């Protein structure tokens, strides 16, 4: 780094709540930065919230209409000339493995805004993103910044259960979103990759509020426990089914869609245990993948599950939706799946996986002529196969 300053080392030594101050001090010393601002994406994925102005609604930036938001959407740095001078604001996406955390805006003198310096700033934001994720284990600062309104307790439990909202690897990309972001209770998603395979889970616990969240929490934890023990997909479903039944004795159940993808071949195993649906966009063709319906987790004692096989091809997009999406009613009758889901998938086909869920959920809200949704989830899975190797 310039002047021998190791920003990564400084960030690792920083207090968890003081990462922005550390970056600000170093960028001022190394590059002459006169302003350094960090904005984090809110839970709803609609605004950028400034770290320096906690609770200040005037400081919020709309992702859809601000230069910072456009940088986040394009995942490319953007330069903005500062009025009355030669300084330039550089909007730099802070992204970790495809998860779009926010934007770091660095104001530099015009003569310091060189390609070499901007390349070094890219390294800074990469390090900052990783350190924010680590720091969240020890401080609530960044969690509070992301909240433009208070989460319900059920939503708090659901968001803490999630892996991330996006992930990008050589062979695939993932993106997912829950709505209503600040009051979701039963819907959830999970994923994990060990290098040889990718496992996805889309779950929907029955009921409302805390009861639905507790039910889903039990099911997801049981699925993770079985997965981390190295069990196959059918055994994962069976273990989670037994865990839910043992606690609720059939009074509550969890609708679940489990997917395992063999990363070397694109071969998939799928278990449909309830209501989430899987749709495929292949070329310009949109179709629902009809699966063998099996019992939701926890409905009966000792249910048995069997995985069925599919194969994804390079360029395929799979979209998983909960019943809050496909059963969303229109004011004049009909449902979203009947009238608009295929159109929505076509309309978003050029978006990266990370942006598809939010776009579809906004389309559902517009279709319902309502500002908020019932519990709803969209997960988008793009398969590149060998395309990026």
From TrEMBL:
Supply the alphabetized keyword list.
Answer: Hydrolase
List the Gene Ontology MF annotations in alphabetical order.
phosphatase activity
Enzyme class, broadest EC rank: hydrolase
**Highest taxon in the source lineage:** Bacteria
Stretch list, region Disordered: 65-84
Q: Could you tell me which Gene3D superfamilies the record lists for this protein?
A: PPM-type phosphatase domain
For the PPM-type phosphatase domain, which residue ranges apply?
171-383
| Keyword Zinc part of the UniProt annotation | no
Instruction: Tell me what this protein is called.
Output: Phosphatase
Q: Which gene encodes it?
A: rsbU_1
